[in-house]
Amino acid sequence: MVASRPDPEDGRAKMLKISQLGSQLLNRLHAKLAPEREEFFAALSPSEYSTLCSLLERVYRERQAQTPSRR
User: Fold this and answer.
1) Structural domain range at position 52
2) What is d(CA 40, CA 6) in angstroms, rounded to the nearest whole number?
3) Residues 48 and 16 in one domain
4) Which of the residues 4, 31, 64, 69 has an alpha carbon 20 to 30 A from that of 40?
5) With b meaning 16 or more CB within 10 Å and e meaning fewer, what string describes 55-69?
6) Are residue 51 and residue 69 in the same domain, yes or no?
7) Beta pairing partners, 24
8) Are 46 and 36 found together in one domain?
9) Which residue range or ranges hold the HTH marR-type domain (predicted)?
10) What's the structural domain count of the chain?
């Protein structure tokens, strides 16, 4: 499900990446969980849901920018 390789910045660490098979499984899981996700976020309007996703993405990108060697 994942592939690993040495971290180019720290040879002691391993970098993990989802394999093609893992990605396919993750996509199927996302599709299967869609009804539960929709129910969970039902209290939000489409606009509010979009705003929430945008804010979370911004927080994630900022966090990634602060710790580039942990990607």
Assistant:
1) 42-71
2) 39
3) no
4) 64
5) eeeeeeeeeeeeeee
6) yes
7) none
8) no
9) 1-61
10) 2
Residues in CB range of 17: below 8 A, 6 or more apart: 2, 3, 4, 5
**What distance in Å separates the CA atoms of residue 41 and residue 35, rounded to the nearest whole number?**
10
pTM given for the model: 0.56
pLDDT of residue 68: 61
Whether 33 and 60 share a structural domain:
no
- State pLDDT tens for residues 5-55: 898 888 888 999 999 999 999 999 999 999 999 999 999 999 999 999 999
Statement to judge: residues 35 and 68 lie in one domain:
no
Please check whether residues 29 and 60 belong to one and the same domain: no
